[in-house]
């Protein structure tokens, strides 16, 4: 499940700050969630099969996350327009952040080399993070399956 390396974020680390637009072109920043637990997950591209599975799983479990007092954020390199279409198509009820320059992904250690069908390229490494109300990492999961985001977070809570 989780890939552990020295440079990757781990339990107890401070969550990197971020300030990005969401699908409605509203600014969202880490300080908006002060005092609240937060699940942040990164996905490679809106409206692709794995990303849709992952995002819809989080969306389908929002009541459970609210009961556990956890806010949720999805992050990809897509534009606000593309995120909006994705959000509207699947009736997503939480912010999808637009990390078009991959700065948040780099800060979280999820922007890296990928390999598909023998072709190497740079992209999002599907990962998720649970953050406490003080901005510290509770747990980090790198290189996860789209189906693992919700169970990993719920088991940890």
Structural summary, described in words:
It is a single chain. This protein is α/β, with parallel strands linked by helices and 157 residues long. The chain has one domain: 3-Layer(aba) Sandwich (Glutaredoxin), CATH 3.40.30.10. The chain is 27% helix and 28% strand. The protein contains 5 helices and 9 strands; from the N terminus they run βββααβαβαββββα. It has helices spanning 49-60, 62-67, 80-90, 103-108, 149-156; strands at residues 19-21, 27-29, 37-42, 70-76, 96-98, 111-116, 119-124, 127-131, 137-141. A 5-stranded mixed beta sheet has the order 5-4-3-8-9. A two-stranded antiparallel ribbon has the order 1-2. Strands 6-7 form a two-stranded antiparallel sheet. The protein is globular and about 40 Å long. It starts with 18 loop residues before the first strand and ends with a helix. Residues 1-5 have low confidence and may be disordered.
């Amino acid at each position: 499940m989780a890939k552990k390396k020295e440079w990757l974020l781990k339990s107890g680390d401070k969550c990197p700050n971020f300030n990005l637009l969401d699908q409605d072109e509203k600014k969202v920043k880490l300080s908006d969630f002060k005092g609240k637990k937060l699940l942040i997950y990164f996905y490679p591209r809106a409206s692709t099969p794995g990303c849709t599975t992952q995002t819809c799983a989080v969306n389908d479990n929002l009541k459970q996350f609210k009961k556990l007092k956890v806010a949720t954020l999805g992050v990809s390199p897509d534009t606000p327009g593309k995120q909006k279409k994705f959000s509207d198509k699947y009736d997503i009820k939480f912010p999808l952040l637009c990390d078009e320059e991959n700065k948040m992904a780099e800060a979280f250690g999820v922007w890296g080399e990928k390999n598909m069908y023998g072709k190497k390229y740079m992209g999002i490494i599907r990962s998720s993070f649970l953050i406490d109300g003080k901005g510290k990492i509770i747990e980090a999961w790198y290189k996860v399956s789209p189906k693992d985001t919700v169970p990993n977070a719920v088991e940890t809570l």
